[in-house]
């Protein structure tokens, strides 16, 4: 019995003398990383644009613009392709200029090819005819000499620059009418105007290059440029319609 009381007393002593665990031995983890900021509320969606539907006549006008522009840029690439070998055979220093102008025309053609496909516009039915005439014009003027080839560029770009300006004026007139009526202008329409302005400026750059390289020394300059400009006006009129 004494033994039992001794064991019980010993157990109580052990219990009372039990050393508590120090919190420093097992520190509680406290993060020092700042909490991420709470996400800002999403921006309210932009209101849909108030776009005015195109009329049938406006659709036809835009289709004719793309059709004739594609045909014109095709002709320009073929003119430079035909002119380059005869010109470089006699004027090899003109290689960078001829390449520069051709590359820009090829870029214009790619732009209108893309727009024609995107908007499902019928290309001109006179592709084969314009291809033959453009190649013949380029080759014949190059054979006549550098001056005649540059006069060809001068004449073509004079007509094309005016042609693009007329298109841009029509599109800007549409924009003004829409805005006056309280309508918005779609991004595609704005991009089309920007594309036409860029291409027009590059075409007029070609005109300046041609004049700088003796275009007006071609003989007879007035006759050569007059015939080419008349041909361009006729091709534009037909390609807008056919």
UniProtKB/TrEMBL annotation:
<keyword id="KW-0999">Mitochondrion inner membrane</keyword>
<feature type="binding site">
    <location>
        <position position="105"/>
    </location>
    <ligand>
        <name>Fe cation 2</name>
    </ligand>
</feature>
<keyword id="KW-0496">Mitochondrion</keyword>
<comment type="subunit">
    <text>Component of a multi-subunit COQ enzyme complex, composed of at least COQ3, COQ4, COQ5, COQ6, COQ7 and COQ9.</text>
</comment>
<keyword id="KW-0408">Iron</keyword>
<feature type="binding site">
    <location>
        <position position="203"/>
    </location>
    <ligand>
        <name>Fe cation 1</name>
    </ligand>
</feature>
<dbReference type="InterPro" id="IPR009078">
    <property type="entry name" value="Ferritin-like_SF"/>
</dbReference>
<comment type="function">
    <text>Catalyzes the hydroxylation of 2-polyprenyl-3-methyl-6-methoxy-1,4-benzoquinol (DMQH2) during ubiquinone biosynthesis. Has also a structural role in the COQ enzyme complex, stabilizing other COQ polypeptides.</text>
</comment>
<comment type="similarity">
    <text>Belongs to the COQ7 family.</text>
</comment>
<feature type="binding site">
    <location>
        <position position="203"/>
    </location>
    <ligand>
        <name>Fe cation 2</name>
    </ligand>
</feature>
<keyword id="KW-0831">Ubiquinone biosynthesis</keyword>
<keyword id="KW-0560">Oxidoreductase</keyword>
<comment type="pathway">
    <text>Cofactor biosynthesis; ubiquinone biosynthesis.</text>
</comment>
<dbReference type="Pfam" id="PF03232">
    <property type="entry name" value="COQ7"/>
</dbReference>
<feature type="compositionally biased region" description="Pro residues">
    <location>
        <begin position="34"/>
        <end position="50"/>
    </location>
</feature>
<feature type="compositionally biased region" description="Polar residues">
    <location>
        <begin position="12"/>
        <end position="26"/>
    </location>
</feature>
<keyword id="KW-0503">Monooxygenase</keyword>
<dbReference type="InterPro" id="IPR011566">
    <property type="entry name" value="Ubq_synth_Coq7"/>
</dbReference>
<feature type="region of interest" description="Disordered">
    <location>
        <begin position="1"/>
        <end position="52"/>
    </location>
</feature>
<feature type="binding site">
    <location>
        <position position="108"/>
    </location>
    <ligand>
        <name>Fe cation 1</name>
    </ligand>
</feature>
<keyword id="KW-0472">Membrane</keyword>
<feature type="binding site">
    <location>
        <position position="105"/>
    </location>
    <ligand>
        <name>Fe cation 1</name>
    </ligand>
</feature>
<keyword id="KW-0479">Metal-binding</keyword>
<protein>
    <recommendedName>
        <fullName>5-demethoxyubiquinone hydroxylase, mitochondrial</fullName>
        <ecNumber>1.14.99.60</ecNumber>
    </recommendedName>
</protein>
<feature type="binding site">
    <location>
        <position position="206"/>
    </location>
    <ligand>
        <name>Fe cation 2</name>
    </ligand>
</feature>
<feature type="binding site">
    <location>
        <position position="73"/>
    </location>
    <ligand>
        <name>Fe cation 1</name>
    </ligand>
</feature>
<feature type="binding site">
    <location>
        <position position="157"/>
    </location>
    <ligand>
        <name>Fe cation 2</name>
    </ligand>
</feature>
